[in-house]
Amino acid sequence: MELLRTSVRVVVRGFVRSPGFTFGVVAILTLGLGVNAITFGMVDRLVLNGPASVERAHELRRVVVRRQASGGAAVATTELGYMDYRDLLNAAQLAGAAAESATPVLSGSGEHAKTIQARLVTANYFSLLGVNPAIGRFFTASESEQEGARLAVISHAFWQQQYGADPAVIGQQLPIESDRYTVVGVAPKYFTGSAVARVDVFLPLEGASDVQIAGPWRTNRNFRWLGVIVRLAPGASDRAAVAELTARHQQAYADTPGDDRGGALELVPLNAVRGATADGELGVAALIGAVALLVMLIAFANVANLFLARSLRHHEEIGVRLALGGSRRRLVAEQAAQGALIALCGALVAVLVAVFGAQPAQTLLFPQVAWLETPVNLRMLVYLAACAVVGGGAAAALPMWQAGGVDLVRWLRTGGQRVSRTRTQATMLIVQGALSALLLVGAGLFVRSLSEAQSLGLGLDTGRLLAVSTLRGETPPRADFQARLRATVEKIPGVERTTLVAGTTPFVSSWATRLVVPGLAQRPRVEDGGPYIHAVEAGYFETVGTTVVEGRSFTPADREGAPRVAIVNKTMARMYWPGQPAIGKCLHIGTENPPCSTVVGIVENTRRQQIIEGDSLLYYVPIEQAQPPLRGGGRLIVRATEDDADMLARIGEATRRAALAIDPGLRYVSARPLDDVISPQLRVWRLGAVLFSAFGLLALAVAAIGLYSVVAFDVEGRRREIGVRAALGASSGAILRLIVGDGMRLASGGVAIGLVLAWLLAPLLSGLLYGVPPQDAMVFASVALVLGTAALMACSVPAFRAARMQPGRALRDQ
CA-CA 20 to 30 A from 784: which of 30, 179, 240, 317? Predict the structure, then answer.
């Protein structure tokens, strides 16, 4: 304790004597620890802790089914059917199972209507997760399974935001779509179900799905739309549970045509960051934590170099203390205490950074996640304190540890002369360069993935299109509504043309109906299913920007009563009639013995729902020849004159106002650019590109400053040598090459090591990349060029200073 008290007094006096040094170290540590404080909150919520308010979350698993898709490829997915869920309820290895499905729904009416996030859940969902309502109750099994049950459990956050935390909310009516749901309970605080995504309302799956989901989802095993959560029975193992569930699944599908005959079930943790259930953003969150650690290591390496430089400037004092019998243990303790105290100061400032910066960063990077109210908790404080004490103490004690083997006679003999850099300083520089290379390679891979995804040929001019959706209450729509709306919208400045589409709408909805192809005993299947039908107007392809590659487009003559026609996409033409012309082939579309629809054209492939998806089977019919309900409705597609986000926003707002003016009975009007629909699908690559680039550039700047500092200090320590060289006739160019060469050798070693490490670790990112190999030569070459340029600039400034040094002055100074 006496040693500690003495060390602290010495440290405080050192802080007062060298405020610039103290401020510089604290600033660097605040940078590294602040980044880690913010990212720790994200990783703690998304990866380490998982769903809030869930009891014994470690016993819960998501069910994954691995199916054999067309072509023999195994596809793992979390989408199961309602009958699959029912099969799991009586499994011996499970304590229970529940099903869920997340979906956006509309609440309110008119201009005040908005989209809220709903989760359709079975009645046993809450008991399986072990939660109790904050107020009210949850719906019961009998209520949930009752057809047309209109009950709702709202989230705690929704209760506070929309109802001001009023306990009288129980029994009130919540308008959702064209129905009203009775609020029976409020979920506990922070509870968002089995995931961390924001949830506003929980609805009974069986009661609400008849409205939200169209199709025979209760009885058709191939109708897959649910996620299933299970809890292991006491004493059960994952292996035994998987064996039982797979056997049950294969037995259930033994006589069912489809992909699941040989399907195998798997169980994975709720917050898996890799594999079939992993959310791409969850994987990026785990990477953020690793990247933040690299930034902190770079910061500590820089701090270690600063302490090394400081100790070399005070080597005479250290040598005298050692020569007079001073304890090396005391010297190391003083330095460790100094480093730990400075690092704790940096950690305190980092906590302030987290308090004010964590929520904006979380909202910006992961807007769909329901974050806790405060980003600072005990785990974060313990984590920061541990990093500060261990890292700061080690960085500061390193110079004194190195001094343990120093020759005292040599230290005293040097007098006031400075010495050049040490091997430890060189090592720290190499470490910084290597870590910077790792981060920049990650940035390059994500930037290229984003570029590849954005440049995909979608088959549509999404940048110029808006999809207009309307929703009414129980009253029937006005017969002339679509015609009047189109006439008004086409007069809005910036609108080029409009068209109607029913059934499948790109990136919005998918629709399938009965299809019979003469001469085709078994229809080919593709991974993304189909065939999906579009009922469109003449001019649809010209409006959305899809090219007709063979045959013709629809014309106004393709109306009701005219010969039935159809157009197919390239994939459907190739798979349904391989080696044959598709033009002239016959399709029987719909029920009740429909007549033949002759294929008159082939269009390029377009994306159906995702920008990254397999081939889909798509076909098109004239909207006037489609069967009800496709013939009676339709979604308006608006094409703007330019690919301009501001113009699309103005057109969308004008369209909403026009629709409500024409029909005040509308519950909801949405005019959404297709690019806004697609944008969330790019978030993983955009997020990775932004974060890796920001951290990589930060690490590059810190490493460059560190290299500059060490080379500049090296020049100061070699003033006598440089003066002698100049006096003996060495040219300025020779001195310049000497200094730059020494610095570049250090930098090159770090870059080389970093690129080798990146080459070995890059395959770990393969699941988060698109269209770019993890060991992309262009990315590695670009990183080497950037780091080499930065190192050359960092070395050149002190080198030019050394080249201009006057020999006489340099020798007199020594």
Answer: 30
The DSSP call for residue 193 is T
CA 331, distance to chain mean position in Å, is 47
Please tell me the pTM assigned to this model. Answer: 0.71
Per DSSP, the residues of 713-763 read HHHHHTHHHHHHHHHTT--HHHHHHHHHHHHHHHHHHHHHHHHHHHHHHGG
Polymer length of the chain: 814
Find the angle CA(350)-CA(351)-CA(354) to the nearest 5 degrees: 90
φ, ψ of residue 174 to 5 degrees: the values are -110, 115
CB atoms under 10 Å from CB of 477, counted, come to 14
Half-sphere exposure of 319 (CA within 13 A, CB side): 17
Alpha-carbon torsion (66, 682, 49, 291), positive or negative: positive
**Phi, psi for 601 (deg, rounded to 5):** -160, 160
At 213, phi and psi to the nearest 5? Answer: -120, 125
Q: Kindly provide the residue ranges of all beta strands, DSSP E only, lying in 433-475, ordered along the sequence.
A: 465-472
Q: Rounded distance, CA 107 to CA 161, Å?
A: 14
Cα dihedral 122, 127, 129, 133 sign? positive
3-state DSSP assignment of residue 369: strand
Angle 43-44-46 from CA coordinates, rounded to 5°: 60
Q: What pLDDT was estimated at residue 326?
A: 65
Q: Of 67, 116, 55, 62, which is closest to residue 85 (Cα–Cα)?
A: 62
**Using an 8 Å Cβ cutoff, are 54 and 131 in contact?**
yes
**CA atoms of 320 and 331, how far apart (whole Å):** 12
Q: Which amino acid is at 250?
A: Q
Say which residue the tokens 């309900």 belong to: 629
Residue 799 has pLDDT above 80, yes or no: yes
Please state, in angstroms and rounded to a whole number, the distance separating the CA atoms of residues 708 and 55.
Answer: 53
Burial zone of 17 (CB within 10 Å; 0-12 exposed, 13-18 middle, 19+ buried): exposed
Q: What is the pLDDT of residues 202-236, one digit of tens each?
A: 999 887 766 566 567 777 777 778 889 999 999 88
DSSP 8-state assignment for residue 646: H
CA distances from 719 to 342, 738, 793, 804, 814 (A): 32, 13, 21, 12, 8
Residue-wise DSSP of 49-77: I-STT-TTGGGEEEEEEEEE-GGG-EEEE
How far apart CA 507 and CA 463 sit, in angstroms, is 13
**Which one, of 539, 637, 523, lies nearest residue 577 by Cα?**
523
Q: What is the pLDDT of residues 662-678, one digit of tens each?
A: 887 777 788 888 888 88
Q: What is the pLDDT of residue 410?
A: 55
Best CA proximity match to 42, nearest among 441, 269, 379: 379
Least confident of 271-275, 512-516, 709-713: 271-275
**Contact criterion met (CB below 8 Å) for 637 and 468:** yes
**pLDDT top residue among 621 and 366:** 621
**Residues 34, 775: Cα–Cα separation, whole Å:** 31
| Token representation of residue 59 | 């016993």
Residue 164, phi-psi category: left (phi > 0), alpha (psi -120 to 50), beta (remainder): left
Query: Distance (Å, rounded) from C-alpha 352 to C-alpha 347?
Result: 9
Query: Angle of helix 732-761 relative to helix 777-803, nearest 10 degrees?
Result: 150
Decide: 205 and 144 in contact? Cβ < 8 Å. yes
pLDDT average, residue stretch 148-162:
88
Convert the pLDDT of each residue in 163-208 to its tens digit.
999 999 999 999 887 788 999 999 999 898 888 788 999 999 887 7
